Amino acid sequence: MTDTDPTLAPAAALRRIAFLLERGREPTYKVRAFRRAAAAVDATDPGELARLAAVPGAGLRGLPGIGEVTERVIREALAGEVPVYLRRLEAIEGQPVAEGAAALRATLRGDCHIHSTWSDGGSPVAEMAEAARDLGHDYLVLTDHSPRLTVANGLSPERLRAQLDEVAELNQRLAPFRVLTGIEVDILEDGSLDQEDELLERLDVVVASVHSKLRTPGPEMTRRMVAAVANPHTDILGHCTGRIVVGRGRPESEFDPEAVFGACAEHGVAVEVNARPERQDPPKRLLRLAVEAGCPVAIDTDAHAPGQLDWQLGGCERAFACGVTPDLVVNTRDADGLLEWAGRRRGQVAGNRVARPRPAP
Ligand SMILES: [Zn+2]
Ligand SMILES: [Zn+2]
User: Fold this and answer.
1) How far is the CA of 86 from the centre of ligand 2 (A)?
2) Which of 54, 68, 222, 334 gives the lowest tally of CB atoms within 10 Å of its CB?
3) pTM assigned to the model
C-alpha cells in the first residue's frame, strides 16, 4: 500500500482488522469475513469500487462477501479516515496482548474457583494449595460443587461442614498461605442456590453457576440468573454462558446480557472470566458488555488439577483484550481485601454498610 494509491487502503484496513481479531483469538468465521471482504476489494476495479461506495444503500453490498460492517469499513477508508471499527480494535488490542496479559496476570494474588477430590477434582486440597502457593499466589478459594451436581460428587451440607474442618487444619500448616472457604453452588431452575443458607453465610466466597437446563429459553434463563445474582450470598457469577468451544462443543445459553450484567453491577457481583481453554467464558463480546456495565471481574482457572492453576494467563489475555484493568479485578486484592469485598457486598445487600464479622479461616 502507498499513500498515493488510496484505493488500496480499504483492503489494508480490512486485513489489519482481521489480524487484530485473530491475535485477540476471535472466532475464525469473524476473521475470515474481513479477509473475504479484502479479497473482494482486491478483485474490484478501483474506479468501480468508488462508484459503488457512492451509491447510497446496497452498492458495495452487491460485491461477494461484503456485509454491513465491512461495507462501513470500506466507505470510511475510501473517505480517507481510519475506520471506526479499526480504531476501536487498535485502542483495546493495539498493544501486544502478551505484554498486557502478563502485566494483568502479575497483579493477581489468588484464584477464586478451584476443585479438589472432595467433588470432581483430581487432587486433594493440600496439593492444590501447595501448587497455588508455588505459583506465587497468596490464597485460593476452594469451590467444590453443591449437592444437586451428583455427577460431580457435589458436597452435601454434612460433607461441606467436614471440608471446613479440614480447611481450618490445613491453614494452620500452610500459613501464611491461605485456603479460603467457598463453593461453586448450582443455580437451580428457580434461581435459588443449591446449599443451606447457613452454610452459604459461613463461606468466604460463593461462586454461583448454571450447570443444568442450559437450553432454557432466554427470558426464563435471564430471570433465573438475575435471581441468583440478586441473592445476597452470591459473590461471583461463574462461566455465565456455559459454552464449550472445543470438540463437539456446546452453544452459549441464551439470556439477556444487559439484564444479567446490570444486576451484577447493581449487586456488586463479579463476572467470572473462566480461563479453562474449553470454556473461555464469557466470550469477548459479552465480557466487553460486562466491563461497560461496570461489573467487577474475577479471573479464575476453575482448576480441577494442580497444573491447571497456571491457566490464569489465558483468562488475562481475554480480559486485557476486553479492557479489563486490575482495579476491576477482585482477585488482585489480597486475602483480607477479598474477604472485605465479599463481606461488605453482602452487608450492603442487607442494608447494612458495615462489613459483617467473618469467621477466621
Ligand atoms: Zn462450573
Ligand atoms: Zn468449577
Assistant:
1) 36
2) 68
3) 0.74
